Amino acid sequence: MQDYDLVVIGGGSGGVRAARIASTHGAKVAICEEYRYGGTCVIRGCVPKKLMVYASQFHEEFVDSESFGWSSKVEGFNWQTLIENKDTEIDRLNKIYENLLDNAGVEILYGTASLVDANTISINDQTLSAKTILVATGGTPFLPEISGIEHAISSNEVFHLEQQPASALVVGGGYIAVEFAGIFNGLGIETSLIYRGPQILRGFDSSVSNHLSGEIQKKGINLMLNNNISSIELTDQGKKKVLLSDGTQMTVDCILYATGRKPNIEGLNLESVGVELGRKGEIKVDEYSKTNIDSIYAVGDVTDRIALTPVATMEGHAFADTVFGGNTRIADHSNVASAVFSQPPVASVGLGEEDAREKFKSVDTYSSEFKILKHTLTENTERTLMKLIVDADSDLVIGAHMVGHDAAEIMQGIAIAIKAGAKKSDFDATVGIHPSSAEEFCTMRTKD
Fold first, then answer.
1. What b/e sequence results for 12-29 when a residue is b if at least 16 CB atoms lie within 10 Å of its CB, and e otherwise?
2. Which domains does the chain have, with CATH numbers?
3. Catalytic residue numbers?
4. Is 5 in contact with 29 (CB distance < 8 Å)?
5. Residues 330, 366: Cα–Cα separation, whole Å
6. 153: which of 129, 132, 157, 251 fits an S-S bond (Cβ 3.0–4.6 Å)?
7. Tens digits of per-residue pLDDT, 2-35?
């Protein structure tokens, strides 16, 4: 039996930040991870995915460059080179996370951990005693139970495909589905995106969803809405034969399911210890990330609050400061900005128009749709959308949305303004940077 002030289960962004900060506050800390340090985002999520987004954008850049006088001869794309270089970078980041923990004095453990009781953890052949336990095990892909589902892959496996498929069917309408449809399509893979609902990116402002839907179809993605997969069969040639809910069939090389994620709680033994879980299996916590058991806390995707890496990091830091740093504070989940690295990318902060009209008596919207300066010399038909949502009574900007080049980079600054309580008059009084797409947020004057 080894005694600690804190044992963290899960080596992702939230768990690593909590462990490091608690250790700097003087706590004796151990952290347990069954796979690799860095978590979903670093190992098989945001980072490798965005590297693949970069790779998939070059084809369009090569074509556009000809209108600016360049003569580009492209010899082709090598899938193996991308995967190998991506793996090298992930290995580097994995070591950085381990070094950060080691330099902070955190004991690093590898293995599958589970709770024995409210103050005891079992990992491999060890038993750890802890005054406080933090669960930060994240989420895991969800695949439906249909015939032939074993022939499909999830976002975990897609980063390790040995060969580039010639055709792919992506299932889902959220972040991951839309992003990988863009990646596959940009790399020259014949790509279809199927979603059971009426429009992709459910929960986003409808102007954003509708605009992106049109743009990805212009780029060549076969978008199939109000449809789903009923069954999958493996053909003699190793392809996947798919029966759709509308009765049609199609055959593809690869089927990627991106139909959601669920809290990663399997094997943790939470229920026998008495930790209260929600309907989706999420760990229920209060505003300080504490469960119904005083010694057990949870942060990140396993709590199903806002499933974003920076949010998990924020929650982990606030937990460590509160419990070990003598600085009681909560993680603020209001006005959290987010981005979808689709093609074109999406970025949003605050409320969409539909939600705003439910919460506020009077709402004004301002929007602009245009072709960016770069594309005025090319045959590229991509168009950018920007939109502001304003509480008409207070003039506060309560939402901002963008679909277009550099959306995430632009929205980060807008998010600071909204977090600080900026009014529409503040946007109007700000001189734009010309010529840029970002200046449009300062020049929208006409209400929709």
1. bbbbbbbbbbbbebebbb
2. 2-139+262-324 (3.50.50.60), 149-259 (3.50.50.60), 338-443 (3.30.390.30)
3. 434
4. yes
5. 33
6. 157
7. 899 999 999 999 999 999 999 999 999 999 999 8
